[in-house]
């Protein structure tokens, strides 16, 4: 556990995301004291149902963000398809249609870098399962800002490329099972 109280959580995932997120998000308590930003690679021209799925199974409300969306603790914010999610300040999210990063929009790197700029040492960044390297650079930004870096144990991931890349770029990241990640979050954002 970090000595600094955590003020925000950002999670990036790709292939296998639904299962991994289902092992973490529903267990967060209704009084969870941090906003949770989630970036999942979804096809750009399809409708995402992640917010609906998790709103139904979680104690925290889950929404797909819109541009300039106000942010509050105890809510889950999903990046919409075909937009980068930028954390503008502690109270707002912006959307961008800038170029894809690592063939992805939304990009995990872009969201993590903006969150690290805003939340600094109060940010926990988590990289879960995925089949590319998106998130490795963003997790470096979390570490550079003094935040906590956590990576799903690649041995437990549906697709290990993303967690392996994150560990390679951030050797100081804490490697945890999904259950350990959930337990950490419950203590860090109490």
Automatic annotation (TrEMBL):
<keyword id="KW-0145">Chemotaxis</keyword>
<feature type="domain" description="CheB-type methylesterase">
    <location>
        <begin position="2"/>
        <end position="185"/>
    </location>
</feature>
<dbReference type="InterPro" id="IPR035909">
    <property type="entry name" value="CheB_C"/>
</dbReference>
<keyword id="KW-0378">Hydrolase</keyword>
<dbReference type="GO" id="GO:0006935">
    <property type="term" value="P:chemotaxis"/>
</dbReference>
<dbReference type="GO" id="GO:0000156">
    <property type="term" value="F:phosphorelay response regulator activity"/>
</dbReference>
<dbReference type="GO" id="GO:0005737">
    <property type="term" value="C:cytoplasm"/>
</dbReference>
<feature type="active site">
    <location>
        <position position="41"/>
    </location>
</feature>
<dbReference type="Pfam" id="PF01339">
    <property type="entry name" value="CheB_methylest"/>
</dbReference>
<dbReference type="InterPro" id="IPR000673">
    <property type="entry name" value="Sig_transdc_resp-reg_Me-estase"/>
</dbReference>
<feature type="active site">
    <location>
        <position position="134"/>
    </location>
</feature>
<protein>
    <recommendedName>
        <fullName>protein-glutamate methylesterase</fullName>
        <ecNumber>3.1.1.61</ecNumber>
    </recommendedName>
</protein>
<feature type="active site">
    <location>
        <position position="14"/>
    </location>
</feature>
<dbReference type="GO" id="GO:0008984">
    <property type="term" value="F:protein-glutamate methylesterase activity"/>
</dbReference>
């Amino acid at each position: 556990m970090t000595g600094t109280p955590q003020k925000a959580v950002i999670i990036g995932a790709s292939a296998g995301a639904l299962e991994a997120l289902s092992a973490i998000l529903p267990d967060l308590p209704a009084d969870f004291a941090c906003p949770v930003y989630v970036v999942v690679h979804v096809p750009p021209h399809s409708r995402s149902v992640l917010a609906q799925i998790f709103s139904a199974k979680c104690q925290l409300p889950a929404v797909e963000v819109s541009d300039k969306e106000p942010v509050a603790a105890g809510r889950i914010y999903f990046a919409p398809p075909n937009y980068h999610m930028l954390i503008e300040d502690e109270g707002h999210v912006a959307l961008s249609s800038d170029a894809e990063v690592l063939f992805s929009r939304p990009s995990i790197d872009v969201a993590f870098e903006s969150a690290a700029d805003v939340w600094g040492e109060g940010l926990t960044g988590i990289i879960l399962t995925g089949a590319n390297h998106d998130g490795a650079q963003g997790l470096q930004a979390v570490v550079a800002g003094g935040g906590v870096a956590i990576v799903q144990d690649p041995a437990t991931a549906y697709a290990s490329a993303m967690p392996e890349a994150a560990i390679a770029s951030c050797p100081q990241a804490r490697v945890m099972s999904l259950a350990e990640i959930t337990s950490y979050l419950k203590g860090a954002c109490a």
